């Protein structure tokens, strides 16, 4: 029987040789709060791996939140992550708790971290250093206890050289980089994914399993 590491939806095959180093790192770091950077092409399973790490950690019973940094406008991401006070800006009709506070004691996964602008990067650096946030429109410091996992499908080192990514934040995020090999090197995972999507399609369309 094929041995696998399972998440809620998609599975990683432990028989895929290119994933052996990833699985070894996963087992060693899951129980520790070291900051992780997951590096890999789009579709390689970075979100699933972050969920697996959370599920194997002492924080497993607390929230896991996923934020796609590239999907949010630059002027909204600060409010999304840190929250805001009533009246902080047009449309802020009530106080809002940000993702960092919602994920307190759990894990916050920041996907596409490379898409953050430089201003937001400087604020992220402060969070990593001080473990505290300030809501938009407030002066009150809020302490947080959150494990941060980030991911990128771009070469952050190259972005640092270009000047579009802060060097100090880059080194903070590189607590432990984990490189995910592309699917073209993971034949067993392609079969698992194909099987998953067939089952999902049949279930959604009320069809017998093909």
- Write the element-wise H/E pattern from the N-terminal end onward: EEHEHEHEEHEHEEEHHEH
Structural class based on helices, strands and sheet pairing? alpha/beta
Topology, number of strands: 11
Spatial strand sequence of the major β-sheet: 4-7-10-3-11
Radius of gyration: 19 Å
Which runs of at least 5 residues are low in confidence (pLDDT < 50)?
1-10
Distance between the termini: 20 Å
Roughly what is the average pLDDT, rounded to an integer?
84
Describe the structure.
The protein has 210 residues and is of the alpha/beta class. It is 37% helix and 19% strand. It has helices spanning 20-29, 46-55, 74-82, 99-102, 118-130, 156-162, 167-173, 187-204, and strands spanning 4-6, 11-13, 36-39, 64-68, 83-84, 96-97, 107-111, 132-134, 141-143, 147-152, 176-179. The protein is globular and about 55 Å long. The two termini are 20 Å apart.
Keywords:
210 residues; alpha/beta; five-stranded parallel sheet; two-stranded antiparallel ribbon; 8 helices; 37% helix; 19% strand; globular
Give a concise summary:
With 210 residues, the protein is α/β, with parallel strands linked by helices.
């Amino acid at each position: 029987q094929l041995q696998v590491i399972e998440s809620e939806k998609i599975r990683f095959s432990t028989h895929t040789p290119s994933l052996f180093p990833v699985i070894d790192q996963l087992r060693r770091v899951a129980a520790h709060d070291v900051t992780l950077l997951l590096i890999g092409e789009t579709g390689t399973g970075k979100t699933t791996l972050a969920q697996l790490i959370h599920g194997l950690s002492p924080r497993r019973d607390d929230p896991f939140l996923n934020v796609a940094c590239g999907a949010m406008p630059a002027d909204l991401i600060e409010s999304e992550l840190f929250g805001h006070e009533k009246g902080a800006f047009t449309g802020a009709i009530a106080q809002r708790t940000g993702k960092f506070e919602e994920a307190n004691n759990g894990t916050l996964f920041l996907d596409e971290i490379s898409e953050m602008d430089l201003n937001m990067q400087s604020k992220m650096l402060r969070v990593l250093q001080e473990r505290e946030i300030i809501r938009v429109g407030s002066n009150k410091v809020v302490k947080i206890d959150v494990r941060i996992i980030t991911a990128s499908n771009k070469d952050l080192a190259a972005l640092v050289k270009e000047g579009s990514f802060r060097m100090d934040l880059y080194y903070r995020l590189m607590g432990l980089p984990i490189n995910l090999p592309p699917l073209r090197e993971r034949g067993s995972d392609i079969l698992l994914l194909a099987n998953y999507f067939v089952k999902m399609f049949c279930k959604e369309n009320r069809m017998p399993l093909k």
